[in-house]
Amino acid sequence: MADGQGGLAAVKGLIVHGDDFGLSAAVNRGIWRAWREGILTAASLVANGPAVAEACALATGSGLALGLHLNLTCGRPLLPAERVPSLTDAEGNLPGKRAFWGRALRGRLSAGELTAEIDAQFGRLAALGVKAGHLDSHHHVHLLPAVAAAAAPVMKEWGVRAVRQVRGKGEAAGLSPAAFFGRLQHRSVAAAGRRCERFYRGLDGAGNFYGFSWYLHPDPGARLTEWAARLEKGCSEWMCHPADFAPGAPVTAAEMRRQRECDLLCSPVTRQILAQAGIELMTIEQKMRKPEL
């Protein structure tokens, strides 16, 4: 971290964040590889993910900054389905992204059930030896007002002091399909997030957010040099979804996108581009120790 003349206000600080830790063995390999060999600085754990125990065993004591990747849309809740009926479908599964957002926007989520499940997810990580330092979420559900109202008090109880906020203009320049959909997602999620700022008041977070277009782009490194040169001073977050399917090979389009992101994060060229642009890798915990950033 830079200090001295100019202070942190003159620094381009970048949190490189891996989402979905614990979702699968391939995701675990990708995040671990990107942390050990690449530029990844932080990750968030899916407490109800099939591979979360493996992820926690890998990361505990490693120095990787860890948070909770709140999951209320995919798989099964940690609590029995009969305790959280507003969060589940007829089979006891979480209802999926569209259905969950629809329930939230129509006021059909129980505040008590949200509180209980969020608390259970923090508790699951604690039982596996991980104290979450920040919160984000699968499909950005923590930026829905109903979820934010429940999450903020639970975060306080668990001593969590930072939350992801989708801010800034995003990186989605250009006319490609990836740029268009990335820009659309950034704007819609940012608009939802602005309605939640009152709930997360007093919590820290990055001043600018990037990542929607990186995941969608067929060549996520194509605009890296231009983006790095234009990165704003202060603290920014780059959301990533790396996975490593070796010794197998990615099959679906989503798997191939995750593999490309992993390779990008681990490339020496990527590290060189960021260094040449004066970008300093950091974590949200480092930012909180330097609040002027």
Could you please describe the fold and organization of this structure?
- With 293 residues, this protein is α/β, with parallel strands linked by helices.
- It has one domain (8-289): Glycoside hydrolase/deacetylase (TIM Barrel, Alpha-Beta Barrel).
- Helix content is 41%, strand content 13%.
- Strands 1, 2, 3, 4, 5, 6 and 7 form a 7-stranded parallel beta sheet that branches.
- The termini are close together.
- Contiguous low-pLDDT stretches (5 residues minimum) are 1-7
- What share of residues are in beta strands? 5-15%
Q: For this structure, what is the CATH class?
A: Alpha Beta
> Alpha-carbon distance between the termini?
11 Å
CATH topology: TIM Barrel
Shape type = globular
Mean pLDDT equals 90
Tell me the structural class.
alpha/beta
Number of strands: 7
Number of domains: 1
Largest sheet: 7 strands, parallel
Percent helix range: 40-55%
SSE run: EHEHEHHEHHEHHEHHEH
Going by CATH, the homologous superfamily would be: Glycoside hydrolase/deacetylase
- Level-2 CATH architecture: Alpha-Beta Barrel
- Please work out how many helical segments DSSP would assign: 11
Tell me the radius of gyration.
18 Å
